[in-house]
Amino acid sequence: MNFKKILIAFAVIVIGVTLTYTFSPTDGEREEKELVLTVIDEQTSSVLLDHQVFKTNASSLGEFLRENHEALQLEAEESKYGLYITGILGLSAKDNGPSGPFWLYQYESKEQGIVMPLGQAPSADQLPLFDKDEVTFHYSSLLGGENEG
Known about the structure:
This is DUF4430 domain-containing protein. By secondary structure, this protein is an alpha+beta fold.
């Protein structure tokens, strides 16, 4: 009788482990998440994109931007720090020089309890994405922290 109970318990464990690995995402299958984007042109005080929700499987902001480069009219260059954003939605900072305006962004992840003010987030390639994260891009001459306050 004990042998039957042990055999049944073992079978339940094997089935549970099999189902866990069968239905959990692998490296090649990442869960879809929502990313909320806002794009602000501080030079004209206009909002170009207002809390637009994008669905993505991207693991980083850089990967998301590359995947959505057409929809966002993204201009970017690869640098030693990763993706360097020079244009979004037709506003290019490519030839603006050292006084700007530049493209900066702020990041908030409620799931992670993280808020990164304007200009203080890591490079787009190093910023991981989680469901319901919010990224606000600013076309601004002010460097991070100068416009807060």
